[in-house]
Write a structure and sequence with these properties.
The chain folds into two domains: 136 residues, Aspartate Aminotransferase, domain 1; 265 residues, Aspartate Aminotransferase, domain 2 (3-Layer(aba) Sandwich), CATH 3.40.640.10. It has 13 helices and 17 strands. The chain is globular, with a radius of gyration of 22 Å.
Length: 426
C-alpha cells in the first residue's frame, strides 16, 4: 500500500520525502545529454552523479563491460586475483606520481574513505606509535558511511554518533573568493599549522583538492604544496580525497597535480569508471604497504568487500583510461573549463552573483542568496541545461567530452537565466 507522502516505493537519498512525489524521471542518456519521461532533452551539466566523465552510452565502455561479462564476472578477491584488477592497479601506478604504487579496489568513494582511514591508523600501530588523530576541513565531504561521516562538519552529513578517534576540523578563515588571495592562503595554512601543533601528534590530514559539497570552494594555488611540507614537518600522513577531482575533472589527471605533489594516500572513484559501474580505489605508497607485513594478525589489510575490485568494473576502468588518452579528455577539460570560467565570470556584474570560481570542468556560481541560486538553476533547467544547486551555489560539472557548441549553449542559457532572475527581482 502506498502511503500519503509519496506515490513511489523508492526512497531516494538526500531528497526530502515530501519532494519525492512527481519528481523528474530520467529515462535515456546519450553523449552529453539526458532525456526525461516527457521527452525533453537536457544538456547534462552535472555528469549524471558528477561521474559520467566519458559521457553517456559510450560504445567502447559498453563493449568492454559486455566482453568481460562473457568471460569472467568476478571471483573472491581473498581466494584469487584476475587480470582486469591487476591491470588497472598497474596502470594507476604508472600514471600516479612518486611511490603511489599500491592499490586497493572498492566500490564507492565512501568505502575508499573507510579503507584509507583504516590503513592510515593501522600504519601507525604497525610502526609502534599510537597516533589516531585526524585533521580535516569543517566543510569537508568524504562520504556517508560511519567513519566518513565523522570527518564532515557539514550540517547535512555531520554524524550524530561519537567518533571512534579524535577529529579536528579546520574552518575556512574567509569567503571562497577571499580564500584564493595570498592573505587567504596564509590564513588557511596558519589554521592547519595550529591544528597540527595542538594536541597529540596527528595520524593524518585528509582534504579534498577542491571542496565539493562544502561549497565548491577552489583552494588557493600552492596550498597543497604547503600542506605537504607541513605534514612532513609534523610526521603526519597526507590523504587526498580525489573522488570528485580525479581523472581529469580539474583539467589535470589528479587535482594534486596542479601543485606537483605526491600524497601518502589518495582515494579515487566517480570518474574511475565513468559512472558505468560502481568502482573506487585507494592508492598508497609502497612504504606504507610494507608495514602491513608486520601486522600481527592478518599480515595484510583487514578490510574488503564482496564486490571490491569487481572484474567487470575493473575492465571498464581500464577502458576509461584508454578513452581519456585517445580522446584527450584531460586536455579538453582544461580547455572547455577555461572557456566556461571566463564566460561565466562576466556574470559577476549582476547583483545576484557574489562569485564565480572553478578549476577545469567544475565551475561554481555563488549567488547572493539560496533563493537566487534556486531561481537561476530552475530557469536554466527549463531552458534545457541541468545544473546542481546547494545552499546558494550552482555547480556546473559536465562530462569531459563537452564540445565547443555545448559550452556555448551552457553560457548562453545560464546567462539568460541570470538576466531573467535579475529582472524578476526588480
Amino acid at each position: 500500500m502506498q502511503n500519503s507522502t509519496s506515490t513511489s516505493s523508492l526512497w531516494r537519498p538526500w531528497t526530502p520525502i515530501t519532494q519525492q512525489a512527481n519528481s523528474m524521471r530520467i529515462v535515456e542518456a546519450k553523449g552529453n545529454r539526458v532525456r526525461d519521461a516527457e521527452g525533453k532533452w537536457y544538456l547534462d551539466g552535472i555528469s549524471g552523479v558528477l561521474n559520467a566523465s566519458c559521457g553517456h552510452g559510450h560504445p567502447r565502455l559498453i563493449e568492454a563491460a559486455t566482453r568481460q561479462f562473457q568471460q569472467l564476472v568476478h571471483y573472491d578477491p581473498m581466494v584469487s586475483t584476475h587480470d582486469p584488477a591487476e591491470t588497472l592497479a598497474s596502470r594507476l601506478a604508472e600514471i600516479a606520481p612518486g611511490e603511489l604504487n599500491e592499490t586497493v579496489l572498492t566500490n564507492s568513494g565512501s568505502e575508499a574513505t573507510e579503507a584509507a582511514l583504516r590503513i592510515a591508523l593501522q600504519y601507525w600501530r604497525n610502526n609502534g606509535e599510537d597516533r589516531n588523530r585526524v585533521i580535516t576541513f569543517e566543510a569537508a565531504y568524504h562520504g556517508t558511511t560511519y567513519l566518513a561521516q565523522q570527518l564532515s562538519g557539514l550540517p547535512f552529513t555531520v554524524s550524530e554518533w561519537a567518533p571512534p578517534f579524535p577529529v579536528d576540523h579546520v574552518s575556512l578563515p574567509a569567503s571562497p573568493r577571499e580564500i584564493r588571495t595570498e592573505e587567504g592562503a596564509d590564513a588557511l595554512i596558519g589554521l592547519f599549522t595550529r591544528a597540527l601543533e595542538a594536541g597529540p601528534p596527528a595520524a593524518a590530514v585528509m582534504v579534498e583538492p577542491l571542496l565539493g559539497l562544502g561549497g565548491c570552494v577552489v583552494l588557493p594555488a600552492g596550498f597543497l604544496a604547503r600542506l605537504r611540507k607541513l605534514c612532513d614537518q609534523h610526521g603526519a600522513l597526507l590523504i587526498l580525497d580525489e573522488v570528485f577531482c580525479g581523472f581529469g575533472r580539474t583539467g589535470r589527471m589528479f587535482g594534486f597535480d596542479h601543485d606537483g605533489i605526491t600524497p601518502d594516500i589518495v582515494t579515487l572513484s566517480k570518474g574511475i569508471s565513468g559512472g558505468y559501474l560502481p568502482l573506487a580505489a585507494v592508492m598508497v605508497t609502497s612504504s606504507i604497504k610494507e608495514t602491513f607485513i608486520r601486522e600481527p594478525i592478518a599480515q595484510g589489510l583487514r578490510y574488503g568487500h564482496t564486490t571490491g575490485g569487481h572484474a567487470v568494473a575493473a575492465a571498464v576502468g581500464n577502458t576509461v583510461l584508454d578513452i581519456m588518452a585517445d580522446e584527450k579528455l584531460v586536455e579538453n577539460s582544461a580547455a572547455q573549463g577555461a572557456t566556461l570560467l571566463k564566460g561565466l565570470g562576466k556574470l559577476e556584474s549582476s547583483p545576484l552573483i557574489a562569485d564565480v570560481r572553478g578549476l577545469g570542468l567544475v565551475v561554481a556560481i555563488e549567488a547572493d542568496a539560496p533563493e537566487s541560486a534556486a531561481a537561476i538553476a530552475e530557469a536554466t533547467a527549463r531552458a534545457g541545461v541541468m545544473t546542481r544547486h546547494e545552499r546558494g551555489v550552482i555547480r556546473i560539472a559536465p562530462p569531459l567530452t563537452l564540445t565547443d557548441d555545448d559550452t556555448a549553449e551552457i553560457l548562453q542559457k545560464i546567462g539568460t537565466a541570470v538576466e531573467d532572475a535579475d529582472a524578476a527581482r526588480r
